[in-house]
Amino acid sequence: MSDAVELDKKAASSVELIKDKNGIDQAVLRNSNGASALISFYGGQVLSWKNEQGEELLFMSSKATFRPPVAVRGGIPICFPQFGSRELLEQHGFARNSVWVIDEELPTTDPNEPNGHAFHASINLLLKPSDDVLKVWPHRFEFRVKISLADDGHLILVSRIRNPNCKPFSFAIAFRTYFLISDISEVRVEGLETLDYLDNLCEKQRFTEQGDALTFESEVDRIYLSSSDVIAIFDHGKKRTFQIRKQGLPDVAVWNPWEKKAKALADLGDEEYKRMLCVDGAAVEKPITLKPGEEWSGQVELSVVSSC
Known about the structure:
Blueprint lengths: L4 E3 L6 E6 L5 E6 L5 E5 L4 E6 L27 E2 L21 E2 L18 E7 L3 H6 L5 E8 L5 E8 L6 E7 L2 E3 L6 E4 L5 E4 L5 E4 L11 E5 L5 E6 L4 E8 L3 E6 L1 H7 L11 E15 L4 E12 L2
Antiparallel strand pairs: 1-8, 2-3, 3-4, 4-5, 6-11, 7-8, 8-9, 9-10, 10-21, 11-20, 12-20, 13-17, 14-15, 14-16, 16-19, 17-18, 18-21, 19-20
């Protein structure tokens, strides 16, 4: 087995390479306790994350399209090199609807791997620009992501972006994470209190969060700035709490389309906004600039626990 596909042979964990019905490569990660994750090479995107009981933790639209060139609505699409719309690039950039490959060139050590985890199953993916991408974004890059399912069921995405050019480039990035929830009215997000945010519904005007927790009564599309590295999503309906731990990603994007916007989205069911919430580790307000030869790294770690 390639070093790019790693597992703990002492445990009943596995990495299985498969293809979907459209012939797109996928990887299934399983840990020794029965948790699993499904990753598509199209977009380098996590499509599913299940706990030890086999319960799905990520939202996937019933109307999602799983073939190019359309982005997949749900899971964890990677937004790069932009978040939102700008200039010639498509919404949220091209990484989420590009084909990634297994990364065979791995470092001997990864300084960004979190301590205290046994990564029983991991896959390393690589994205380099195609000729079509270079026409609209003329910067060569190497984008590596290691997706790991730990023995405790945590899902970890460690990313590295390197600039092999002779000139600098700048980018924004977000791990758009669609959490599966009981009902949007039953959810609150903590860790954003007193933060400034850019409101995309008000032409990116800057406001300050006044509440002790963020709750939802209408459409929300915000970027919270310079947040702490730990954000919690409390789902009272399912009696569980998601925790997001992040490194190298100073911002947090929060999105729920609500009823009107949901009906306008062709790849989202009219009522499905009630069962999804996006809370993303991101670097948006201040783009990251890489000089020639420099490398950026960032990490998102997702976990879930039962709560009263």
